[in-house]
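Retro notes
What went well: the complex prediction finally ran end to end.
Inputs used:
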Amino acid sequence: MTESTISAPRRGVPIWAQIIIWLFLVGLLAIVAAGLSRAQQGTVQPGQVIDNFTLPLYSGYELDGKSEISMEDMRGKVIVINFWASWCKPCEQEAAELQTAWKQYQPTGQVVFLGVDYVDTDPEARVYLKKFGITYANGPDLATRISQYFRIKGVPETYFIDQSGVLQYVQIGPFSSIDQIRAQIDPLLK
Amino acid sequence: MRSSRFTFYILLLSLVLAGLWTGSAYAQGPTPTDNEVNRIARQLYCPVCESTPLDVCPTEACRQWRDLIRTMLAEGKSEGEIKQYFVEQYGVRVLNEPPNRLVSYLVPTVVILFGAFMLFRGFQMWIKPSMTESRLEDTKPEAKPFQDLYIAKLEEELKKRK
Amino acid sequence: MIASFGFGVLIITFLVTLYSVFAAIYGERKKIPAMVESARRAMLLTWPLLTLTASILIYLLVNDHYEVQFVYEVTSRSMPTYLKVTAWWGGQAGSLLFWSWLMSAFASLVTLRKWDRDREFLPWVIVVACITMAFFIGMNVFFENPFAQLYQMSTGVEAHTFRPAASILFIPQDGNGLNPLLRHPGMVIHPPMLYLGFVSFVIPYAFAMAALITGRTDDRWIRLTRRWTLWAWMFLSFGLVLGGRWAYDVLGWGGYWGWDPVEIAAFMPWLTGTAFLHSVMIQEKRGLLKHWNMLLIILTYDLVIFGTFLTRSGVLSSVHAFAQSAIGPLFMGFVSATLVASVGLIIYRWDSLKSETEMTSLLSREALFLLNNLLFMSILVVCFWGVIFPLISELFTGQTVTVGPPFYERATGPLFAALMFLMGIAPLSAWGHSTVKTIGRAIWKPIVGALIMTAIIFATYTRNAIALVAFFLIALVILVTIYEYWRGANARQKSQGENIFAAFWNLTGRNRRRYGGYIIHLSMMLMAIGILGIELFQVETQGTLEVNQQVSVGGYDVVYQDIAQFQGPDGREVTRAVLGVYKGSEYLGELNPRIDYYYDAQQTMTIPGQRSTLRDDLYILLVDWEPASATGATFKIFVNPLVNWLWLGSLLFLVGVFIAAWPEKDAEPVTVRSQASVQQQTSAAD
């Protein structure tokens, strides 16, 4: 019976086949590595310029009469972005403090508080806002676009952005006092 | 006298209209059953919890989402509209299947077909010489064509080994 | 003190495995047998060392040492002792240690055998086994120390291996407690069973690498590890079944398999393992597919490592958590390195892996086994793509998607059906040569039988096309297998003059692998019956019932009778409902679905009330997110037809594997290659 090889000729695997195999393998591993490193990234870090995004606002929670707000609109002011949800228990710890802080800064017209509602339902969100008497602008993060941009790891998280659109500070978890909030805003107003 | 009669009829008319208007709320139909809600919730994943279908998720938030589905069903929304709403609110990942079916099925199909192709190429390469032999067992042998075939096969093999 | 001692032993074990690797390589390269023997002894030493480490950890677990972070995370005072012991594999750090312990046990077992004929494999088997062990122990030593303790610092409580400056030991009063989902007595076995399967597959891989490195690429390495492969496959299969049973009994979702990426990660090595199990038979019988077998075992090994890390019971309960942890990149690095090295080795030894004979017929058993491999690999491709697609989607579009059951069911359904069809044909084909005529002659009777059975099902039970095709295939395989058994026993009866029972017994005894394999196939078909029943014919309903209100589902009448709330024995609050089950006017019994709330873990478990018969399962859940009281409670009721065939089949599966793996009394046959090509239509000989 004649012997025969299964596939390649006798001199080992041909170069072209080797190239294809290695390219495929390396490519596959590279994709997984890229995905992993992406997941390993933390939230957006201070020093980064925040891209423009738009947030539709709940009716009754508009800013300057606008039902949709974008970063461009708020250029020149200090922006406090707070990610929250009605089903998030820790968020309730800081809700009153945030509202008080807003009330203190609102007359100056130099600071904007923006509440971004993460993965929530309309009726429950309104109950939450009413419960804490919140009056600053709030809107749903449709398709979680904004949360994905900031790469938030959970709620609540608060992002402080200065007048030129550069991220200055990230607060993970609730604030324990209003002083903590002021401590981040006051330096930016100087 | 005439004016009071007139007033009476106006009041009566308003009452009837009011009754019709409030009564029309009931025309939305009975509350959707749990099964109807689950039928849709089963096709969605909890937007917050990891890998948990919406019909079995025990959290408070998921209960609210199921209530939302119930409300939308009561309003007469279709399954497609409800799923569309969830996608707009929470992103495409809330569906239990990628919306673009073509891409998700295309790649495995191509890879599998390629594998099948490689396998049958392999079969062809291995079996062709012996296929002629087995045909010999079943049919009457015709020496000349067999020899030609054999020589052709041999030449092919020799070419490959160069 | 004790914890630090445990950590010390762990470090020593790590150094011993490293020594073993280098000693083996050095001794092999420089041809110093004494060094290789030293490496072997070092490897043997790892098992007692790891047993000591594990004993220390178990001591800490059982004795409420909550200053140790791992003990705090997985035990609590209210847990019974046996659960505290099994909490060893209830969290990431302990699981890794358990894995290493199993690995050292198996590696020691392998090296304790006689090595006269295969001395050259030994050093490389040691190297591969010890590199794997070093990786897992290294994980424990450097990243997930099971002996890390809690220290009170100025910034709060943190876990450290060594006491940091300006801190004191922090001793919590009580622990978090084991995840309630793992406190199910039966489900204590699922993680170890799965790990047994995973770890055992490292042995054939080690031998494969040894074969490639030494150049002894004949089927010696396969023969040496044949039984290991079978046991590994058995543990893995049973581990998967236990996982399904756990999900069914305890998870409270009403199903046994959710196509969750974590489940798929454990399923993928099973697919390549099953393909491997079949295709090594081709190499043994006909000397073909040597490259392919190497590739399969390499894939299995790397998928095993992947599956180990992505388990539901541990800390990394989801793909997301896995990706975000510190462990993720490390393990990916290990998988990449071993994959690249192994593939490089195959390419290096490509020529020495050439076949000894050629394939002669499209319908020969080896050709059909190849088709079997193609189908298993296709299912693997579907699974792998499903897991990786969300990742790719996010990379390229920024939006992530979810790939759920519909995709997997639609894509793998036809492939599984094709596999069942193959299972019906392959027993009837012979090694070396088969034609449509020979197979056709054998198969027409089972086909007719299967058609008749399908017709009966069509007439009495269902018109569902998918169900009918599936039941036809299942009937075909069962009939073909029984037919093969009967043919063999019949031939024996005639030639040996035995009665039919003795014939069956001796037939199986003399051909354990073949007939054990047939029983395994039969058991798979029983499991398929169960799967089809629950997948295609499940009836589900959810609704709120008032006391004494009745609901009818799937032929049963269920009456809500009572509900009670009380404190359970081990720190839980139990809400238990009482439902009466009737079929028409006949009283069938009482079911008690309940909700257990565990105070320490602050987690709820929904335990179904089940009434199981061969015909179906009546499965009732108390819906835990709706308030339950004496006035009204919400229930989810399933009727799952035929599902118990799934569990029964798995028991028969164990029987089949035991038969197939039972050692033969006869000596191992010497490889005589030239005979293989002469084999024609043998069907009784193995």
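What we learned: Residues 12-41 of chain A form one domain.
What to try next: split runs per interface for comparison.
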